[in-house]
Amino acid sequence: MPVNPPVDSDAEHGEFGEPVLQQLASRLQRAVGFYNAKRLSDRNITVPVPIYNPQTRQRYFEDAPIPLARQFASPLARSGPNADGPRGERHVTSGWGDPRSIQYDANVDSNRRHQGLDFRAPTGEAVLASADGIVTFVGAQLRPSEAARVASIVRPHTDASGNVLDATGKVILTPSQLGHGGIFVQLRHTGDFQSYWTEYMHLSDVALKEGDHVLEGQMLGKVGRSGGNRGITEGAHLHWQVRFLGTIVRPDPLVPHYWPGHDNEGLDSSVGDAFASANRADISVGESLIASQTANQLQCLERATQCENQRGPTLKAAQSDHSRLVATNLSLHTGTIYDAVAKFQSSLPIVQSPMVFDFDTGVWSPDGKPV
User: 113 and 100 in contact (C-beta within 8 Å)?
Assistant: First the structure.
């Protein structure tokens, strides 16, 4: 990937006497090519190597490896008492990186760090598909002590004791056999979310079967308490997580959610902008200058904080957009220069016969004027 715009070498400066504007336009053209190439390289075209955690023996992506065209849709309805975010986002009680309880049974298939989002929701609330896709798994996660890690079950649902039953009502698993995720559904997505999977865990009932095609917003099942410590979670909620080509991806930038104390979005205007607008006639010039300088400092801090909290894909997309805008701007300048050169050249008089200086007479011909 090019690091800086190319500079002209001596050989590229052109022949002696080349107009300065022509040289400048040539340099701008090379800069446009540089930024167009940089725009593509900043898009993370190749898939990065996932991070390996030796403690959990799992690989994961801290960020989505390929920037998404849009966010996934909310897996829960954005209306009702639990939709208490600024724009109706659902409340997250635990998110990426949060530590798991030290009281968790070591036999439960649980990562020591949280790798999804826990959405607060009542038992029985409808769980919705976050995007179009195909159901690739319906069943339950098992404890590591079981022979298999997961069990595919037709129409899994729980009874009052937390047992998992199949479509016929037969008990397939007891709570002591359930791993941390409990009953869950996995979707493989298409379109905008090609190569991504989403998983919906701790369900109480699933009405779909593997191979079904679902649309964004379609009901997958119901919120429950299956899984977790001892096979039954302490409170009803939905665990939502994302995979890219099978590897877990940090989920919070990818879906609307309300996670108090963690989000920096939702403000209509910044503190710095609000402070800068406090230009009242009843304050002195000195006070106005102090207010202006304070606003500048606040705006710098807000910009720094905003960049700090951006995820890798967001920063890469912003870098790519910046390179695109620079290339567009330079192209406009180049066009303006060429247009100016053409107009200047067209306005010059056409000399039919060149003037010659006669050293004997000391005058120019053909006008005959002296030097």
Answer: yes
Residues 6+ apart with CB under 8 A from 298: 270, 271, 272, 275
Q: Is 17 left (phi over 0), alpha (psi -120 to 50) or beta?
A: left
C-beta of residue 117 within 8 angstroms of C-beta of residue 241: yes
Residues linked to residue 356 through DSSP beta bridges, in sequence order: 365
Dihedral sign for Cα 334, 337, 338, 339, please: positive
Homologous superfamily (CATH) of 64-254 is Glucose Permease (Domain IIA) (2.70.70.10)
Q: Which two tokens stand for residue 12?
A: 């590229």
Amino acid letter for position 95: G
SS3 state of residue 305 = helix
Per-residue pLDDT of the chain (371 residues; tens, 9 = 90+): 455 665 544 434 444 334 677 777 777 788 888 888 877 777 655 556 777 777 667 777 777 777 677 899 999 999 888 898 888 999 999 888 776 654 444 454 444 567 899 999 999 999 999 999 999 999 999 987 777 789 999 999 999 999 999 999 999 999 999 988 999 999 999 888 988 999 999 999 998 999 999 999 999 999 999 988 778 888 899 999 999 888 888 888 889 999 887 754 433 344 444 444 444 556 665 666 666 666 667 666 666 655 665 666 667 777 777 788 888 888 887 777 777 777 776 766 665 666 676 777 767 666 555 54
The closest of 35, 28, 27 to 2, measured between CA atoms, is 35
Query: What tokens appear for 265 in the block?
Result: 């979005």
Residue holding tokens 């000399």?
Answer: 351
Q: Using alpha carbons only, what angle is made at residue 337 by residues 26 and 343, rounded to the nearest 5 degrees? A: 125
Q: How far is CA 3 from the centre of its chain?
A: 23
Residue spans per domain, the chain: 10-42+319-347, 64-254, 271-308
| 8 Å CB contact between 151 and 184 | no
Q: Which amino acid is at 16?
A: F
Give the single-character DSSP code of 110: -
Q: Is 235 helix (H, G, I), strand (E, B) or coil?
A: strand
